[in-house]
């Protein structure tokens, strides 16, 4: 009960809970696309790539704010994505291999740069997030990004689904397949940047992949995967903060561990696709 | 007709009308799939044209429905039979128009016509081969397509399902649709289709199946 009292008394705890709920909801919703596209591996690569991107943006502009961070992250993700395509098309190296080499190299570069940045940074917060200390300004950003992602994903739901299911049929029907892919990519990076605060660059993959995967074990309805993922993401993020306070661990890892456990339970017990039910 | 900078098809020309079931017959790599995709508007044509109802078709028309080969479908995609058939309404709805009661009724009718009402909540992988073909046909019907382009629809079906699908295609043609399908089983082609287009990179003949399917013609097509 003392925890609830803490929440009532503390503005920062309330902010943390609202922020976590929003980030979890938007990430969980978008994880539907990540699961349907089956590109969890590239999400993982992109999330690591954000770190050097943001570090370089700070070096160039000498300040740290969200615009810089976003542009830096976007450019780094583009460079790594295109770089891996370039390598795979011009050599016998498979794209997954190329992507792994380039993103780990970029990530290492980012880690090497961090101590030399002109702004005081805490490597730990970058990697694992610090939702408990989310600022009003960050909260506004999270709200804006979540709203943009949810509105755009819903507006373009039909063409995006068609693009995912049958790209050539979609293209023939006049769906701008390329634009839909770019839209998906941009929204993905937006979500990654927004979830930095909550769970950091490494753990953000968990929020963007696990909720949709859990829903996949329960339903075949596409809309249920998206909205169910949103609810799972949101509730696990809130619960993660509670658990973190109760047993004195960090909030970011707590959220991801909860999601992982939920996935494990679903994998074992889901009435239709659970391992034990088969 | 270029495919990956290699000429896949040339000099193909044939005329047909609704109510017919046309088989595309030819050896592997003859360009049957490519021809179907070209008619469907799925691959760009370097030259040539398709006329439909007296006018030249420049881009995709919802009157044409393409049913992909089995291995080209992502069967694990989390979509139910009903969800798949609903996709047939997307071209009419565009991106944002609401899915109306009329659309739902069209989907219901399509499901009923293909005897899928009871299976509508199954995921597409949980169907038999014949049911899967019917699900894609239901989508084409929900799309209100008049030309059905099928890529090897009979491949992998057992005898009973094959016969059922043959009857179904016949019925769909009699209702005024044009069926064009690639087919490789020479023993069944005369039964299942009334017209045949022999293809091997270029056209090797077009006509009634019972006249055109002869050992000589087939030998000529396959060794072309």
Strand count of chain B: 10
State Rg of chain B: 17 Å
Structural class of chain B: alpha/beta
Proportion of residues in helical segments of chain B: 25-40%
The CATH superfamily label of chain A reads ABC transporter involved in vitamin B12 uptake, BtuC
Q: What is the makeup of the main sheet of chain A?
A: none
Element-by-element helix/strand order of chain B: EEEHEEEHHHHEHEHEEHH
Structural class of chain A: mainly alpha
Q: Summarize this, please?
A:
The complex is a heterodimer of chains A (278) and B (224). Chain A is mainly alpha-helical.
Descriptive key words:
heterodimer; A: 278 residues; mainly alpha; ABC transporter involved in vitamin B12 uptake, BtuC; 12 helices; B: 224 residues; alpha/beta; six-stranded mixed sheet; two-stranded antiparallel ribbon; 9 helices; globular
